[in-house]
Amino acid sequence: MKAAVIYHPGSPEEFILEERPVPTPVDEQVLVKVKAFGLNRSELMTRKGYSPGVQFPRVLGIECVGEVAIDPSGQYAKGQQVMALMGGMGRDFDGSYAEYTVLPKHLLRPFQSSLPWETLGAIPEMFQTAYGSLYPALNIQQGETLLIRGGTSSVGMLATQLASLAGLTVLATTRNPQKETALRANGAAHILIDNGTLNEVVRAIYPAGVDKVLELVGTSTLHDSLLCLKPGGTGCMSGMLAESWTIPDFAPMDFIPATVRLTTYDSGQIISPTAVFQDFIRQVEAGQVKLAVSRTFSLDQIVAAHQFMDSNQGAGKIVVLIK
Q1: CATH number of the domain to which 70 belongs
Q2: Which residues are in the Enoyl reductase (ER) domain (predicted)?
């Protein structure tokens, strides 16, 4: 099989496409024929050497969609459509940047769909992070106002649609004014050009502040995002687009405004049941949700795909399709 292997942290050019034996699953593992996978910022950070504990060489990839090739237990029939995400994929063990991957059975979410693989490949991590942030973490309610910091990211674009469908008013941010049209077409009621400080801009629209904030940029803007919340509001940090994990000299009493709540969402800790994914796929099939796929690449183009992710030029998910 072909696999994109990285031997040393660094630039996209560190990826080497090489031939490897197809791995063999053992107890509680399944061999999956990968059909597509989405790219994620966490993979960019792992590629750069920013993910603690990752040993190289490594096949990256924290998510995939595909078909069961071998299930030693017989639980899944050959050809069963499955998706998988997180659980150590691409970090603790080799992930989805390959034609086949061996995965722990508990990570699999079986599904049925007639959608093309390039569409399905955009779903697992993007949907799980958007859904998990909005519902288990933020507990969004109809009629609320929601600020999405990092609105043109794949998660931000999907979260905007899901929140709008749920009856919320969405304020979405971008650093690039040329992306304003895409954000408005995606369902955002207010487009904010992000220069790093949005508190005054938000309060010019909603003087008391907003009800909820979904922080996808990360620690560099988190404090300002919390200042945008009304008393009793909730902020959820789910992304690190700015590639910063920590807050220097964190002082909670100074950092978090009084009565404002701060939580996080991490799909590595909480993943939705299979039925939640299947219901979402049905929404996409019915045209209720339109997935923002920025560009599609082949596995042979993995270097170019990571270069495109590095450029921050896209507005939506980058998908790699394996034929």
Answers
A1: 3.90.180.10
A2: 10-320
